[in-house]
Amino acid sequence: MDVTASLSNLIDGFGTALTPTNLLFAALGVVLGTAIGVLPGIGPAMAVALLLPVTYGLDPTAAFIMFAGIYYGGMFGGSTTSILLNTPGESASVVTAIEGYPLARRGKAPQALAAAAIGNFIGGLIGTVALVLLAPIVASLAVDIGAPDYFAVMVLAFVAVTSVLGKSRVRGFASLLIGLSIGLIGLDQMTGQARLTFGSLHLSDGVDVVIVAVGLFAVGEALWVAAHLRQKPEKPLTTGQPWLGKDDVRRTWKPWLRGPVIGFPFGAIPAGGAEIPTFLSYVTERRLAKRKDEFGKGAIEGVAGPESTASASAAGTLTTMLTLGLPTTAVTAVMLAAFQQYGIQPGPLLFDHESELVWALVASLFVGLVLLLVINLPLAPVWAKLLRIPRPYLYAGILFFAAVGAYSVGGQAIDLVLLFAIGVIGFVMRRFGLPVLPAIIGVILGPAAELQMRRALQISNGDLIGLVNSPMAVTVYVAVTLILAWPLLRRLLPTGRDREKAGSSST
User: Fold this and answer.
1) By C-alpha distance, which of 82, 384, 393, 390 is closest to 233?
2) In the chain, is it the N or the C terminus that has fewer CB atoms within a 10 Å radius of its CB?
């Protein structure tokens, strides 16, 4: 299918998506997705799953338009609690908390929320345009990527995030080890052997990443705040001026545009959705920023880049789901089940057999992005007023919603015990200066990295050369080596002062 045919079909799709009924479903999806994304631990995947039975009587086109709105709305809603409460609504917004929450504490919550909203819009817009133009090409590339490449990319994510966060690499790798250990809990995916379950059947399924993320961030933060409330008086929080100033725009427009370059390809390949690219976007912005000293204390680039990346990644995951029938995130997995509910099988023939539905869905993504911006950007100062709530009441509410989110994952009381236990681990990590993000990385990517490594070794009959037998894997490992060796290389390379001394001595 050439570009002209794609654009022609897209115009027809807008004709379907902009009917009053479908427009109403798009707006409903955006509002529901944002509202549910704001609740800690309840992400867009759960929203789509809960609404799936409700859509039995709906026209398929209307149902998928609403699901797409929930997807994009949930991506933004998760960033809202990351910024305001240091509590990611879902795993793709984990990175946003690193800089967004310190910005909110400095009285710049509206700016952070505006940077996130505009980043979501720009990333989603560019990603959806890429979906229209590049879907066939990306699908063919995704088929050729093998287990060694997946494993190499995940190793890059491990090394990159532990090398740039915190003041000590040792603490970064210690945090990663904690996450990898939690990720090992459950049944071995290839042998069925129980690991670290301590005889509990409930732990055989592992610890859900939602419980880990909410426990380390929300519960850990609440315990930390409770431990320090009496030690220092609470300062009234200001919400600052709404919208972005000239300096903010100057610092964010490049991260907004860089985000889709990282996010869309990673979303399109079956490597786990938005988690890896948002981490890599954060690392990239930290390396390229002129004000590196602000990172960790509230750098707006660290919000703009990852949010744009996450939104573009969402478009990438839809590309793979629609063209290959391969879901790479929980949301697209639920949407795949919804397609099957209507007797539709996503794949290479979907664009031929269900052309009207697919192009209406793609057009609704553009409509949903505009609605997302129109609805949420004016609400940034309103959301920021959450920070004025007295902290004891605020964190009591966070713990309540965290407990609801954790309990809704499996519907068992042991999930609440796990939530509190992981929250205590998060509190201890804060006490000893261990960054939280590498632990989340370990939990999310650890099991997948292990599975891809073992697949690669099986293909090569246990020969380690099987991990580096592709050009992409070799390229990634070269990047990993450079990241690890950079501190040593920086010491060996002459600095500006050394060159000045050398110049003065020669004269």
Assistant:
1) 390
2) C
Taking a C-beta distance cutoff of 8 angstroms, is the pair 480, 467 a contact? Answer: no
411: region left, alpha or beta (phi > 0 left; psi from -120 to 50 alpha): left
Q: How far apart are CA 109 and CA 96, in angstroms?
A: 12
Q: What is the pLDDT of residue 424?
A: 92
Give the residue from 99, 116, 430 showing the smallest Cα distance to 294. 99
Sign of CA dihedral 280, 285, 286, 287: positive
pLDDT in tens, 420-459: 898 899 899 888 888 777 887 788 778 878 888 888 888 8
Are the C-beta atoms of 151 and 340 separated by less than 8 Å? no
Question: 506, exposed or middle or buried, with CB in 10 Å at 0-12, 13-18, 19+?
Answer: exposed
The pTM score is 0.67
What is the identity of the amino acid at 408?
A: S
Contact present, 387 and 84 (Cβ < 8 Å): yes
Q: CA 464 to CA 285: how far, in whole Å? A: 33
Residues 1-12 have pLDDT tens digits of 567 777 888 888
